[in-house]
Amino acid sequence: MPSKVSCLYLLTVVCWASALWYLSVSRPSTSYVGQLNIPIRKSPKVNKNGTFSNIRARSLNPHDFGYIINEAKKCEAEPPFLVILISTTHKEFDARQAIRETWGDESTFPDVRVVTLFLLGRSTDVVLNQMVEQESQIFHDIVVEDFIDSYHNLTLKTLMGMRWVATFCSKAQYVLKTDSDIFVNMENLIYNLLKPTTKPRRRYFTGYVINGGPIRDMRSKWYMPRDLYPESKYPPFCSGTGYVFSADVAELIYKTSLHTRLLHLEDVYVGVCLRKLGIHPFQNSGFNHWKMAYSLCRYRRVVTVHQISPEEMHRIWNDMTSKKHLKC
What we know:
Layout lengths: L3 H23 L40 E3 L12 E6 L5 H9 L12 E9 L3 H14 L2 E7 L5 H15 L5 E6 L3 E2 L1 H9 L10 E6 L26 E10 L1 H10 L8 H12 L4 E2 L12 H6 L2 E2 L4 H13 L6
Parallel strand pairs: 2-3, 2-5, 3-4, 7-9
Antiparallel strand pairs: 1-4, 5-8, 6-10, 7-8
Helix pairs in contact: 2-9, 4-6, 4-7, 6-7
Membrane topology: Single-pass type II membrane protein
Pfam families: Galactosyl_T
Subcellular location: Golgi apparatus membrane
């Protein structure tokens, strides 16, 4: 006599067999699929280059930081010839003030409109944030986004500048991105390099071009992990101490960055974006990413000089403006 377990096993097999037979005979043929209320998903179209045309590309770096401080109306009255974006930190008030009183003064050249902006992230020190807020209410030349202000976030700071130009000042002609310890020979930059009387350039990018590769030494300030950037060479890039580009490039770089893996080395990252855009940066010997001993004739030939203190900035500016009549 068969056991109870054997009977249950046999019954289960019979049930499964019956179910499978029913599905096989009752399944609709392909001619009836269109009559059923079932959405049929088409296979994604593949382009010749292997990308899917009907799949939305996801942003690698959405850069969705809100503005804590903004000067959205800075360019409303009249599109500027030049926008100056200065990367700075909260404690560098003396440097910002020195720039305002020297080469960053927007009223220096009455025939050319210049807009000067200082770029910051958010400090972890509440008091410093409050001080910058008060400074902004006085000078109206500060933009702050809601990310932590740090060396490793310098790329975010540059991208916020690109985003700001693309959003609030897209009709500007040129942009200078620089740092708060840089002296800029504005007369040389505006009249000898950019030349306001000539037709504005497009897809233009210039500065001190560096051709190098990643440093793999973990002790280095410029260490680049292999898993973050596996290539042995960087694309040509301009030193982040100072570079100039046509304003149309700001939007191009910002949009490209949304789909480009973030690198903490800001100037290298901009170079990576430029390579994607097919824009080659031009070498210009007037941009110096090192400190130079001051002499009137030497500084007349440069565009930027690095590692200049607020005191030196005042001294250099006063000497150069008071001796314009002297020939070299």
